[in-house]
Amino acid sequence: AQSVAQPEDQVNVAEGNPLTVKCTYSVSGNPYLFWYVQYPNRGLQFLLKYITGDNLVKGSYGFEAEFNKSQTSFHLKKPSALVSDSALYFCAVRDGGYSSASKIIFGSGTRLSIRP
Amino acid sequence: DAGVIQSPRHEVTEMGQEVTLRCKPISGHDYLFWYRQTMMRGLELLIYFNNNVPIDDSGMPEDRFSAKMPNASFSTLKIQPSEPRDSAVYFCASRYRGQGANEKLFFGSGTQLSVL
Q1: CB of A81 within 8 A of CB of A92?
Q2: Is the CB of residue B99 less than 8 Å away from at least one CB of chain A?
């Protein structure tokens, strides 16, 4: 069974500093990995994905994530944080090894707080 | 497209009452997912459908929960009888498998359920 872990409940960063939100995963087959963001009283919005190819993927709002197969990690990063980046971030995984396994599992979420 | 539409936006009910949550996926999408979000358990997958057929309902917490998808444009999640511990935000999401490597989930705005 697939699973995903976000070890930090909250990450606090000063505006202008780089940020990292951590994610590790476990799947039987090839991992399909995603990051979503949730603003207050809203549904989740897609940020970026890794399916195959380059280990560094770029997404919306200047975010990027690095796939590391040996460490089974997919950390979300941004070189320079903005106050408007403050939100709840979810890592998600799907096991790409089975055509019928479209189950997408989310981590527990990490609250990102950017102080001015 | 209007996106994934959920109704009602808020639901307040008393313990023991039946609750029905509704979802209209994006036209053309062939996968539909129901998730539940709580502070304690994060975002949990309850059930998902492919072409209106339930594929995996292993996340449905109890027999009190049931979900249907009578056609491609409508799904319901029913709780009967409801209990206070069912209080949560319930999200519906859809995607189109034909997206291939895109694999993006589109979420509704959620239904905030409060069971008193």
Answers
A1: no
A2: no
